[in-house]
Every structure is written in C-alpha cells, then in structure tokens.
User: What shape does this take?
Amino acid sequence: MSGASQAARQAFAPNWGARLGLLALALYSLYAMAQLDITWDRLLIGFGEAGRFLARMWPPNFERWELLIEGLLESIQIAVLASALGILLSLPLGLMAARNLAPTLLTAPTRAFIALCRSLHYVIVAILFVKAIGFGALAGVAALTIASMGFIAKLFAEAIEEISMKQVEAIRATGAGFGAVLLYGVLPQVASRFTGFCLYQLDSNLRNSTLVGIVGAGGIGGTLFAAFKRFDYDFVAAILLSIIALIFLAEVISARIRAAMQ
Amino acid sequence: MSGAAGTAGPMAPLIREWHRFTPAERIGRWLVWLAIVASVVWAVRTVEIIPEFLEDAPEQMADLLVRMWPPDLAHYYPDVHAALVETLHIATLGTLFSFLLAVPLALLAARNICRIRPLNAFAQLMLVSSRSVNSLVWALIFVAVFGPGAAAGVFAIAFRSVGFVGKLLAEALEETNRGPVEALTAAGAPWGHIMLKGVWPQVQPAFWGIALFRWDINVRESAVLGLVGAGGIGVVLDDAINFFQWERVATVLLAILAVVIVAEIVVTRIRSRLI
Assistant: This one.
C-alpha cells in the first residue's frame, strides 16, 4: 500500500521514451560523424585554420568598389525582375490551385507543377538555365522566377482557400462575372496577405540573387566566388559585408512598405 | 465632406463622404506603387541581356532535355546512392548541431528568460548574422576552414540554421505562460528544473515543429553544398555537369527530387502525429 502511494506521489515521472530517443539521437550523431569523417583532430586543425582565415579577412578591402557596386546592382536587378515575374505568374497559378474556386481537374496538375517548382533548389535550377540561356543575369532571373512561383503560388493558393465564401456568393448572387467576383469577392480578403508574401519573396529573392552568380547566373555571387577562388579573402570580407548591409537595408525598406500598404 | 444637400438639420454631421485612407496614407501607397513600377522599369532597361543567347534559348533547352533523356539509371548505384546518404547525414547532423548552438542562444535572446538586456541584444545579433549569410556562403567559408568534404557541409548547414531555429525558438519562449514558472519558483525549484518542467512542456510542440521544418529545408540545401566542395550529392552533380554527362545529371536530379519529396511527406506525417 505504501509503495503504491509512493509511486502516485512522484509528480514528475521519468520519461523513458524520451530518454531512449535522446540516446538514439546521440548514437546516431556519433555514427554519422564517423561516416562523414568528422574527428576531433580535424576540428582542432579547422579551428586553427579559422583563426588564420579570419586574420586574412581583416581588414576588408574595398579597393575594387566599382566591381562590388556593379555586382550588387545586378543582383538587385535580378531580384526585382524575378519577383515581378514570379508574382505575376503566381497570381493565376495560385487561383488555379485554390480548391474552393477552381475545379479539381485544374487544381491537381497546378499543384503538382507548383510542388515541382519548389522541390529543386534555385541554384540547381540556375545551373540548368545557365546551360539553356547562357551565362548572365537572365539565367538568374529565370531560376529565381521558378523558385518564386513555387513559393508564393502555394501561399496564394492557401490564402485563397481560407477566404470566407459568403462574400463570393454575395457577389455571384448579383450576377457578376468571374472577373468581378475575383475583384470584389476574393481580392479584398486576400490583398493584405498577398502584399506580405510578395514583400517576403522580394526579400528572399534579394538574398538568393546574391548567390546564383556562383554557378554563373549573374549578380554579386560570381564576384564572390572568383574572390574566394583567388584567395582574396579581404575582398571576400568586403563583399560579404556589403551583402549583409544590402539585405539589412532591404529588410528595413520592406518593413516601411508593409506599414504603408496596411 | 459632401454635405451639399443637407447643410442644415440634425442629420448634417452624418452626411459625409467616407475614405478608407487618410491623404497621407494614400500618398504613401501611391509612392510605393510608383517605386515598384520605377524599379521594374529600371531593371528591365538596364539588365544585361545578350540577344544571341536569348534567341537560341528554346533550341538549347530542347537540346538539354534530349541529352538528359534517357536518365543513366545504372549510374545510381553505388555513386549517387552513397552521395545521397551522405547528403542526408549532412542535413541531419547539421540540424542537430544547429540545435546545440541555437538553444543557448534562444534562451539568451528570450527576454522573459534572460533578464540582462545587453545579453539579449548580443544573442539577437548572433542570430541575425547567422541568418543573413546564405548556406552556400557559409559552405565556402567552411571549405576554406576544414578543407573540402562533408565536415564543411555539416558546419555550413548548422551555422545557417542557428539563426532561423534560434529566432523561432526565442519567439516560442517569449510566448510561454508565466504561471508554471512562478509555481515552480515558489516551490523552490532550481533553474534547470524550472526550465525542464515549467518552460519545456510549453515550447515542446513549437520545438518539434521547428526541428522538422528546418530539417526539411536542410535536406534541400545540403543537396547543393557540393557545388562548392562541401560534400553530399552536389559533388556528384557538379562532376556530371563538368563532364557534360547530362544523362547522369538527369539521374542525380531525379534522385534529389525523390529525396526532397519523400522528406516533405515524412515531415508532414510526423508533424500531424506529434502536434
């Protein structure tokens, strides 16, 4: 009897399932580290190298600022064009993928297409477009357009699926055509969320457009990769600092735009 | 105000024209639209487009697809398979390592857990700087540090994820209810117990959600790390592209596609079970 009451009094019983799970995770990480050849010695050497690397990065070298500005401007162009194209194409795609407005015959293939756009990483898509369109900003624009479509068309579709159908029915009851239903029944309910998605996508396109240059698709990434390959680590530091500054600036501006469009 | 009809009478103040936005708001919105149009026009006019490349783009695209067909499926085992497993290891280990770093940073960044303002700001700064450097750039840095190989990939994934995971965890921590924490404090529980029994049960669903979400993203991202030499399937992809072996490229792309889709399905399943 006393044993039972002792057991009942234990407020926080040990959770053996969780402990076993943690143990399994620890064992897995040891196994994976062995598989990937991550050893303590290697880490120690790496930390020494990191010190040297950081020392060579400092001070950042802004001497070739013309190259830097040119690359950044091209990145911004890529981001703006990819966002504009991606948003324009996502509007019909999102509508076609929304299960409450479009027939199933249309939503299923559209959803598959959107999922396909989203599942390949934008750098891989950029490689394919570099092959198809050739080196330069256009390949970056195309790759990021695909990536934007995969992302915002999905969000658009989800936003449209969450609207209240009462307003749509009310507009339909007045005998309005499909365009009028969209304009007065659907758009007012989703406009503010759409603005948020678009701004978010512009932000992330800006981040990504600084990267696609690594595979030759234009923007500052090419300059960055070249500087890395030539071990110009002080120039690398300058490029990284300017990218971070650009992204930070973009976040501030998009917060302003969000406030203005509310 | 458009009170032309009823300038007198008790109803006069009610007859007015309503506007959704104040004039300042309207000017602001108009300026935003102007800026959007202006920036798109600027980008279209100044972006460097080589017309010759654009002209034969459809032809080149068709050529690419023809060369990719049929995919060289014999190439899958063992090369691509081994690289794929390595990619999954990189993503999983990277996610685990990122939590080792992100949990302390999130505890420091959450204003209701750590009451020292400068430490909050410091943790936020670390999280923001981790987030603003892309995983491929982290990979470049770690390839310079650890040399080419999967170790660089794991650290790149971990350092990129820290910012994301830490930010979301800190937000979840800040949303916790004070009640259980105060009860445990009143009972004289030490700090570790308060965290484990007062805070952890509240953030647990968010925690698993974040972990799964980030793992899914990391599987996608670790597939490209190999392009800069940080291990995984990207190395195989890069080799195949450099040798123009497009049938093999097709195999690798199909493998990546399959893994990404399977990862997404797994994550969705586990999430619906856990949360």
Residues 71-261 of chain A form a domain with the MetI-like fold fold (CATH 1.10.3720.10). Chain A has a mean pLDDT of 85. The two ends of chain A are 65 Å apart (CA to CA).
